[in-house]
Amino acid sequence: MAKIAASGRLGQLLTESEHDQILAIPTERDHLARLYSFEPSDIEIIGARRERRNQLGVALQLALLRHPGITLAQLIQDRGAIPHDLAAFVAEQLGLHVTDLANYAARDQTMTDHARELAARLGLRGPTRADIPFMIEAARKMAWATDKGMTIATGVVTALREARILLPSISTIERASSAGRARARKQAAYALIADLSTEQVRALDQLFDDAGGTSQLASLKTIPIAAKPDHIRQILDRLRQVRKIGISPDVAGRIHADRFRQYVREGRASPAYMIERYIPSRRRATLVALLVDLEERLTDNALEMADKLIGSIFTRAKNAQARSYATTSKNVARLMLIFRRTIDALTDAVDTGEDPIEALDASVGWNTLLRARPEVATIAATASLDPLTVAADRYATLRKFAPDLLEALQFRAGKGSAKTIAAIEMLRDLNRSGKRDLPADAPMPFRKEWRKIVVGDDGKINRRLWEIATIAHLRNKLRSGDVWVERSAGYRRFDSYLLSEPKATPIVSALGLPPTASDWLEQRGRELDWRLKKFAQRLKRDALEGVRYRDDRLQISPVRTIAMPDAEMLADRLDAMMPRIRITELLHEVAQETGFLSAFTNLRTGEPCPNENALLATILADATNLGLSRMAAASQGVTRDQLLWTHDAYIRDDSYRAALAVLINAHHRLPFSRIWGDGTTSSSDGQFFRGAKRGASGGDINARYGVDHGFSFYTHVSDQRAPYHVNVISAATHEAPYVLDGLTSHGTDLKIAEHYTDTGGATDHVFALCAMLGFRFCPRLRDFPDRRLAPIAPVTAYPSLTPLLGKRIRTDIIGEQWDDVLRLVGSIKAGHVAPSVMLRKLAAYERQNQLDVALQEIGKIERTLFMLDWLENPDLRRRCHAGLNNSEQRHALTQAIYTFRQGRIIDRSHEAQQYRASGLNLVIAAIVYWNTIYMDAAVQHLRSTSVAVPDDLLAHTSPVGWEHIAFSGDFLWDRAAASAGRKALNLPPDSRAA
After folding, report:
1. Taking a C-beta distance cutoff of 8 angstroms, is the pair 266, 604 a contact?
2. Cα separation of 516 and 792, whole Å?
3. Rounded Cα distance, 175 and 153, in Å
4. Cα 897 from Cα 968, distance rounded (Å)
C-alpha cells in the first residue's frame, strides 16, 4: 500500500515508497528471471563452495551485487530479512532449498569475505567517503533539469553503477542527492543573474516597493481578465514596466528549460512577500524568470483580449443587422404579396392584350407601388448590408485600445503578408501624426468585398471602415500565424510550432508512416477502391444489417438500448451491498490505497504535502465548487489558512495531471476493472456549466444550452469508466480540436486504440490526424446520410454509388504538402505542440492554407473508410453507442458533486477554471476506483454463497454510482483519517452471521 512518507522527516527528498523503489527486489517470476538467471561461469563460482549454505549464500551475494548493487549484509540491515521470492528463485536454479541458507547470515565475517571476493571478480568496489563528491556531482547533473527527488536519486544510482561502485546506504544516496540539487539550484540562479547591471538589480529590488497599497510585483502579476478596452491599456502599461527593466529573453537558454519553467511556476504561485524573503541570488533569479514569462503572458493577454473585443464588435454588428431585418418581416410579407399581385396583373395583361399600366393600376394601384418603393429599397439595403458597415458604429470602442496596442507591439510577417504590415505601419503613422485622411494608395490587405465598401463613390477611402477592416484582418492573420508578435507564446510564427524535418522524421517513422505521399496514396487508394466496390455489391444485394438504400439515400436504423432486467437487478443488488461512506472517508481510503497525494509536491521544495487533510480538503473544494473559505467553514480538522497555503504551494495543473495518472493507472491494474473493458477504447464529450454574470467569469453563449454564458468541461472517459483527461473550453468553441489533446497527452498507462465522440467532435482534420497518429476515430455522426463518400479513383468507377459520392480526392495537394503533414504529425506525437493549437491555427486562415487543405483531403479518405466500416459493421455502431453512454453516466455523477454556487463557474482565470475541472475529475476517478474495489468484494461474496454472477451481466453494471456516498454536510477530516481502511460490505444481518 503506497503512502506519503511521514511528515516527521524534515527536508526529505524521497518518500517511503521511493526509498523502497531505489533498492527494489522484484517479486514477479519474469523480472526475477531477467535479473537473476545464472550463466555456467556463475554456477562454477558458486559450486566451488563446499557447504550448501555457502553455495546459496554466495549465489545470493552474486545476484545482489549485480542488482541492485548491494551486499547481502546491507540488504539484511535495510530490510531485516532476505526476500523469500528471491531466495526461492536462486535456490531453484541450484537444486537447493531456501532452508539451506540457515545460519549463513549469522556469520558476518564469512558474508563480508564472500562479498569482497565476488565484488573483485565482478570488477566492483565498495563505496567510500571519497565517493561523496562524485555522487553530489552526479546529482547536480540530474538536478540541472528537475527537482524531483526520485529522478535525481536514480541518476546517482546509475552513475555509481556505471562507475562499478556498489551502492551505499539509501540515506547516503539521499543526502548526496539533496546536496547535488542544492548545488544545481545555486548554479542555475547565478546563470540567470550573471549579466545583470547595477541598474537592473536595483530595478528588481524595487519591485517590492509599495505602489498604492500593494507592491509593484503584485501589481504586475495581477492581470485583468474581462475583455474591456481599459483592461487592454492596463495590460500594456504593465508590459511597458516589464520591458523597462530590460531582461533579455535569451537568459532562458542559459539553464535547462525544465529548470527555467520551475522558476517561472514558483514566481507565478508565490506571493511577493514570500519571494522577498528568498536569499538574494534565488530572489533575483526567480524575478528574472518571472519577468521573461510576464512579458510573454502580458503580450498574449493583450492580444487575446483584443481578439475578443474585435470579434464582439462584428458579432454585435451581425446581431443588430439580424434584428433590423427581423423587424421588417411583416413588411416583407406585405410587400411580397404586392409583388405577387403585380406579377399576376402583368401576366394577365400580356395574355389578354390589355394595357399593362392600366391593368396594374386597376389590380394593385399605382400609388400603392409608389408608397412601397422606399420600403423595398430599405429592406434591400438592410439585407445586402455588410457587417463591416454596421461595425463602423462601434468605431469609438476600437479607438479606445487599438492605437495603444499597435504602438506597444511589433508585428512580423512573411512575404505573403507584406501588405498587412504596410497597413499597420500606415495606421501607426496616422495615429502618431493625428492625420485623418488616407492617401489614395493606402494598402488594403483585406478581402475584395471590403475594398469595394471602404472606397466611396467619390474615390476616397473611408478612414473608419479602412481602419476597422485592417484591424479585423490583422486579427485573422494573428490567429493563423501568418502574422506574429515577438516575445509572444500564443501568437508565434506558424512554422515555429512545428519540429524541424530531421527531428520529426524518426518520430514519423516509428508511427509507420511512409516517407512519400505516393506510397501512402497507393496503399490507401487500393484499400478504398476495394472497399467501395465491395460496399456497392452488398448494398445492391440489400445485405447490410440495419442499412437501407431508398430513393438514392441511405437509411440507417438507430441503435437502441436493450433493457436487460437481469443486469439491472444485479446492479441494484451490488449497489445495496456497497458500504455507506462519506466523501471525506472515501478520499482518505483511496489516498492510502494508491498514494495519489504524493503527486502534489511543494512548488519550492519538491516535497510531498505533510497535511493530507488540508490537501484533500483543497481538492474537494475545487471538485464541489465550494471554494476554500466555505470548505474551511464546513470542515473540522483544517483551517482557512492551511487551505490557502496548501493551494498556493501544492495545487498546480501538472500536479493534478500527475495525481490523476496515478489513480487511473491504479484502477487500470485492478483485475475487476477489466469487466468493463481493457482500457483500449474511450469516449469524449463536453458538459456545459454556466458562468457568473457577464464580465465576471466570462464564457460564451451557445444556443444549444440556452441564453447563459458558460464553459464546457471536455472530458475523456475510458471503457473502464474512469475519466483520464479534461479541458475547460468556451461553450461556443468547437469541440473537435480538443479530441486529440486528451488522446495524445493524458500521461497514463492506458493504450487507447479506438475513440468515440458525438458529431461535435468530428471533422475531417480529426479523422486525418487520428489515423496518422495510430487512433481509430469513431464518431456518431448525426448527419451521416448527408455526408458524401470521397473516392480517390474517378467517380465513374462506382456507377451504382454515384448519388452517395462527393468530389474526388485532390491527391496533388496531398503530395505537395506531405512533408509538412508529417512534420505536423511528428510535432504532435512528440508533444511539441498541442493538437488543438494547430487545428485552431489552420482554421483561422481567411483563405484556406494548403496544409489545411491537404489535411482535409487526407481526412476525407479516412472518413470514407470509417463510414464504410460504420455501414458494414453493426457491432461498431453498438460499441460507439455504448462508449458514449459512459460519458453520459459521468455527466450525471458530475452534477451530483459540482453543486455549490448553483453549479456556476465564477472563477475569472482559465487556470482557476481548469483547477475546478481537474479537481472534479480527480474526485470522480477516486470514486470509480473505490466503487470498483467494493463491487469486486461484493461479487466475491455473492459467488462464495453460490450465487451465479456471470461476467456478461457484470459488464452492464457501472462503477460510477454514488447513492451510497454522502457529499454534503460537515467535512470531518480528522475522523475520516482515523477511520481510513477497508470497510465491511453492507450485508443483511443473516449474511453477516454466516
Report:
1. yes
2. 17
3. 9
4. 9
pLDDT at res. 9: 43
Residue by residue, DSSP assigns 819-834 as: HHHHHHHHHHHTTSS-
- CA 187 to CA 195: how far, in whole Å? 14
Specify the pLDDT at position 115: 87
Q: Say how many CA atoms lie within 13 Å of 501 toward its Cβ.
A: 6
Residues 6 or more apart whose CB falls under 8 angstroms from that of 792 comprise 521, 524, 525, 528, 529, 808, 809, 811, 861
**879 Cβ neighbours under 8 A, 6+ residues apart:** 681, 754, 756, 778
SS3 346: helix
Contact 721, 928 (CB under 8 A): yes
Let me know: does 94 contact 46? Beta carbons within 8 Å.
Answer: yes
Tell me what the pLDDT averaged over the chain comes to.
88
Give the C-alpha distances (Å, rounded to integers) separating 786 from 495, 781, 804, 805, 867: 36, 10, 9, 11, 12
Consecutive H or E run containing 972: strand 971-972
What CA–CA distance (Å, rounded) separates 409 from 485?
A: 7
Q: Which helix (H) or strand (E) holds 277?
A: none
Distance set, CA 353 to CA 345, 349, 364, 489 (Å): 12, 6, 18, 76
Higher confidence at residue 770 or residue 354?
A: 770
Query: What percentage of the chain's residues is helix, strand, coil (to nearest 5)?
Result: 65, 5, 30
Within 823-893, strands assigned E span none
Residue 554, classed as helix, strand or coil, is strand
* Exposure class string for 731-767: b at 16+ Cβ within 10 A, else e: bbbebbbbbbbbbbebbbebebebbbbbebbbbbbbb
State how far the Cα of 520 lies from the Cα of 814, in Å rounded to an integer: 10
CB-based burial, 181-210: b 16+ in 10 Å, e otherwise: bebbbeebbebbbeebeeebeebbeebbee
114: which 3 cell numbers? Answer: 564472500
Do the Cβ atoms of 925 and 666 come closer than 8 Å?
no
Residue 249 C-alpha cell reads as 529573453
DSSP 126: -
CA distance 878 to 556: 13
- Least confident range of 268-282, 312-326, 789-803, 921-935: 312-326
What letter does residue 993 receive in the DSSP assignment? H
Closest CA to 72 of 94, 101, 49, 44: 101
Give this prediction's pTM: 0.81
Residue that the C-alpha cell 479513383 belongs to? 793
CA–CA separation, 709 vs 692, rounded Å?
Answer: 8
- The CA distance from 482 to 489, in Å, is 15
Range 284-305 average pLDDT: 95
| CB crowding 801-816: b at 16 or more within 10 Å, else e | beebbeeebbbebbeb
Instruction: Provide the residue type at 61 as one letter.
Output: Q
C-alpha cell at 256: 535547462
